């Protein structure tokens, strides 16, 4: 056990040294070679030119079993009604109790399209001292159209830390003003020393990224007390936002299933306005069916050409299946345990 601990600390130290070397290399105006692990290597197939992609091990440990037994039911609980949300907890996490269900109009203001809504839940586990914010995924074709069209329209400043897509910003603000602000302030008052777990799938994943960042910027919670885990997250903000997020949260994991198409949109380089959009760390990539025991990659780059970005063939089916579970209808069934 002692030798294992020493080895773990040594590997962490070496990884930190490598990341610092990469950052120093880029700050000097050179490129870092991911293949040779050298600065300005004359022969290099995979060059790193942005600090956000300097190889770095995460500062927290990803737990596959915890993701299956706790985080997965949180995805399902946000995608259904309050009664079934609590059943999701009863079936998987009995000490977790639903606190609030929030449903708001988050439509594009266009008079042509029908109204669409955004939803989320908060929950509390007084035994394990955990608060939850879980955001619902895209739930209609119209809402998906709004999101896609918004990628070519506008972005909004996220406090002093870059820009995020307007749709995600406006949807989150609608939830914040629609009851989330009062709810989180009340929970903070009642449970000042609790951890906050923030999560979501698809659109909910983008809102989780924004939500965790927002409650830090609002001064409600410290980042070291927050855990973020998302699934199938689209690119949410620009380089500055992503760099701020990954430098702020030690525990932040983006789960990507094999060929899931959504984490690849919008593109890093947009033809319309030439903004470069990036994911923040840390991607956990399952290049398989995500059944129990499946291997996964803890990706060293934030949004480089390794891990899921290697894929050219992309899949919607992989987007709706995480941890070997079909997320369509999972919450409405009360998040049944896998056999």
UniProtKB/TrEMBL annotation:
Any one Pfam family here would be Lipase_3
User: Is the rRNA-binding keyword given for this protein?
Assistant: no
Domain (Fungal lipase-type) ranges: 132-269
What keywords sit in the KW lines? Signal
- Using the record, list the residue span of the signal peptide; answer none if the entry has no such feature: 1-19
One Gene Ontology BP term is: lipid metabolic process
| PANTHER family in the cross-refs | FUNGAL LIPASE-LIKE DOMAIN-CONTAINING PROTEIN, PROTEIN CBG11750-RELATED
Q: Name it.
A: Fungal lipase-type domain-containing protein
Species of provenance:
Caenorhabditis briggsae
């Amino acid at each position: 056990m002692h030798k294992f601990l020493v080895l773990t600390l040594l590997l962490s130290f070496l990884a930190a040294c490598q990341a610092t070397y990469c950052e120093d290399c880029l700050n000097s105006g050179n490129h870092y070679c991911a293949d040779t692990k050298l600065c300005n290597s004359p022969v290099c197939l995979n060059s790193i030119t942005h600090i956000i992609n300097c190889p770095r091990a995460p500062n927290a440990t990803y737990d596959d079993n915890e993701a299956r037994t706790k985080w997965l039911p949180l995805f399902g609980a946000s995608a259904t009604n309050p009664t079934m949300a609590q059943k999701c907890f009863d079936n998987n996490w009995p000490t977790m109790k639903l606190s609030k269900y929030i449903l708001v109009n988050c439509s594009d203001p266009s008079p042509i399209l029908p109204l669409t809504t955004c939803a989320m839940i908060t929950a509390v586990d007084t035994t394990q001292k955990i608060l939850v914010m879980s955001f619902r995924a895209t739930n209609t074709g119209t809402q998906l159209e709004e999101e896609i069209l918004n990628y070519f329209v506008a972005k909004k400043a996220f406090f002093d830390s870059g820009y995020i897509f307007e749709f995600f910003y406006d949807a989150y603000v609608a939830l914040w003003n629609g009851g989330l602000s009062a709810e989180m302030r009340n929970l903070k008052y009642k449970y000042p020393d609790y951890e906050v777990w923030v999560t979501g799938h698809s659109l909910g994943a983008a809102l989780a990224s924004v939500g965790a960042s927002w409650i830090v910027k609002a001064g409600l919670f410290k980042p070291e007390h927050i855990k973020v885990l998302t699934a199938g997250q689209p690119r949410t903000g620009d380089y500055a936002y992503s760099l701020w997020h990954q430098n702020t949260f030690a525990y932040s994991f983006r789960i990507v299933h094999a060929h899931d198409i959504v984490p690849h949109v919008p593109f890093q380089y947009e033809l319309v306005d030439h903004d470069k959009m990036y994911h923040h760390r840390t991607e956990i990539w399952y290049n398989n069916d995500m059944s129990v025991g499946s291997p996964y990659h803890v990706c060293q780059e934030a949004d480089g050409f390794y891990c899921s970005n290697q894929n050219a063939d992309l899949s919607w089916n992989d987007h709706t299946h995480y941890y070997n579970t079909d997320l369509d209808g999972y919450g409405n069934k009360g998040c049944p345990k896998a056999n």
